[in-house]
Amino acid sequence: MLDARRAARVAALVLAAVLGTPASAAEPADRYWPPIVDPPTGQLTPGRWVWADLVTSDVAAAAEFYGKVFGWTYETYGGEDDRNTYTLVLSDGLPIGGMVFDPRAMKGDVPSARWIGLVSVPDVAAAAVAVNANGGKVVVAPKLLGERGETAVFQDPEGVPFGAVRSKHGDPADYLGDVNEWAWLDLWTADVARATDFYRAVVGYDVYAVQLHELRRGAHLVSGGYARAGVMQKNDSGTSAVWLPYVRVADARLAANTARAAGGKVLREPVDVGGAIVAVIADPTGAPFGVAQFDSKVQR
Q1: pLDDT the model gives residue 4
Q2: Which SS3 state, helix, strand or coil, does residue 41 take?
Q3: Rounded to two decimals, what is the model's pTM?
Q4: Can you say how many angstroms the Cα of residue 98 is from the centroid of all Cα atoms in its chain?
Q5: d(CA 242, CA 224)
Q6: Quick one: DSSP state of residue 175?
Q7: In a 3-state reduction of DSSP, which class is residue 199?
Q8: Phi/psi of residue 68, nearest 5 degrees
Q9: 221: pLDDT strictly greater than 50
Q10: Class of the domain covering 182-294
């Protein structure tokens, strides 16, 4: 993963890009933002992470990689200028995220893209107030984004980027993601207590301490009776705090090998953490993510 100093610079650039802030005065800020659900559900699930956007300097390379590893397909919205398009990501026809181009996701010869997760909240403006009041930073204030709905982008007290959304058409059905869909997120942090206090204040989570494995010590963020994400203690002071989203897979070892063959980098080889086999991978543009093969008894 990124070292702590470089991660701070990367976070600053991707935060602006994810809501279409222009890289230069000549670059238009407007993009078409498709709905999170289609057809509409009309139901909100506060506390659930409902979307993820990849900000990258090479959408084509990223799309090719994820297509090979997970079979994702794409719909691209916008004009002929790739800098201003929005690439919708679909897993077996289901919208699960998007990709946007930004040249600032390349530092020198080193790619430094990032997935930005969006959590569902009932009131984005209230979340922004809570972010400021609890040591975070509002990077992009709440704004209406086309068919997506009201969205904002924040940094938590360690500078980790994340977004909040009140979906215009409702949230996806509340279930554990199927194979090749997003199924979990972990925040790897230097201070679990501080991080859980922050996200409890901003999103309204209940917090439960967990230690499922020597590599997984921390807490779960819970809403609506379900664990929505983990806040885990990182052990390497040289790496940055980061939100790491996980794609559910049928075979974590096969997924890691496929990712490696497709041009990705396996940052952590598959390991059994109790109830799941997980691996951490970086795509060819530098964005880290995880894969998780769940025990057959894990379901929702």
Answers
A1: 44
A2: coil
A3: 0.89
A4: 10
A5: 24
A6: S
A7: helix
A8: -70, -40
A9: yes
A10: alpha beta
Is the pLDDT at 238 greater than 90? The verdict is no
- Contact assessment for residue 19 and residue 65, using Cβ atoms and an 8 Å cutoff: no
Which residues 6+ apart lie within 8 Å of 8 measured at CB? Answer: 159, 240
C-beta neighbour count of 211 within 10 angstroms: 11
Helix (H) or strand (E) holding 13: helix 4-18
Residues 59, 218: Cα–Cα separation, whole Å: 34
Hey, how many other C-beta atoms are within 10 angstroms of the C-beta on 280? 21
Pairwise CA distance, residues 66 & 201, whole Å: 34
Topology match between the domains 4-25+37-167 and 182-294 = yes
Per-domain boundaries in the chain: 4-25+37-167, 182-294
Q: Are strands 226-233 and 242-248 parallel, antiparallel or unpaired?
A: unpaired
CATH 3.30.200.20 fits 4-25+37-167, yes or no: no
Longest dimension (CA), the chain: 53
Q: Is 267 exposed, middle or buried (0-12, 13-18, 19+ CB in 10 A)?
A: middle
Q: What is the pLDDT of residue 27?
A: 39
Rounded to an integer, the average pLDDT of 189-210 is 96
Closest CA to 147 of 210, 95, 195: 95
φ and ψ at residue 116, rounded to 5 degrees = -115, 115
The burial of 157, by beta-carbon neighbours within 10 Å (0-12 exposed, 13-18 middle, 19 or more buried), is given as: middle
Are the C-beta atoms of residues 189 and 244 closer than 8 Å to each other?
no
> Cα–Cα distance between 286 and 26 in angstroms, integer?
27
Phi, psi of 200 (to 5 degrees): -65, -40
pLDDT exceeds 70 at position 231: yes
Tokens at 208, concatenated: 């439960």
Beta-ladder partners of 209: 219
Question: Each residue of 78-89: pLDDT tens digit?
Answer: 877 767 889 999
Q: Which amino acid is at 298?
A: V
How much is the pLDDT for 5?
Answer: 46
